[in-house]
Amino acid sequence: MRNIPMHFSGNHACILGASSGLGMAVAQLLSDAGFRLTLSACSHDGLERIASAFPEATVVELNLETVARSADTEQQSQLRNIDSPDYLVDCMQSDFEAFISGAEPARIAQYMETNISGRAICLRHLSRLMLAKRFGRCVFISSTAAALPNAGQGFYAAAKLAGEALYQNLGVELGGRGVTSCSFRIGYVESGRGATFLEKNPQAVQRSPAKRAMTPDEISHTVAFLLSDAAHMINGTTVTMDGGLTACK
User: Whole-number mean pLDDT of the chain?
Assistant: First the structure.
């Protein structure tokens, strides 16, 4: 079977949260295709992981919590180290699972500030770089938890929905000026938090008509398509890839 090539008008991709399993898979695919990469992580271990795997990439430490709380600090200068990307893949998300009625108020405020305000500040900065050259393509990695959360995922789901709203409005506001965006809702994945959850709850995939979790390779290739010129008009919307999970009662 003949491969159908994907075309890209740009060659510089920025992956936020690149040290995650999914972020690494996307980075590897784009690296193999010859893209110039800027990769971010928020921990020392994460930075070492991506620097070791991608020695030619620009590696940036980026902590959403610090970004959210600092209007003009070192974190802002680190954002400025991201040199005008053509593509943005946003895999960032911190962990917090708790029942709504039992969570600590301070922890709720911190989580929302980090994952909503911090993300909005990052997106503001990077979209302005794209706007200056009138070209950019952004993909936000969301989750089917936004539509179908498990108990204890209320805050995670709220943060993902807020992220989807930010990226939707970015596409609405800048689509006519060359910058488009979409959110990519994914279901159970054989990586990261998904793999940990499935180890404890192997029966969960039976809720999906596909009866299995997705691989990082399947997801990374779909992300590449969403970044490609062919998908540039998939704008201001959300694409779901979950094996049919959210189609079921």
Answer: 91
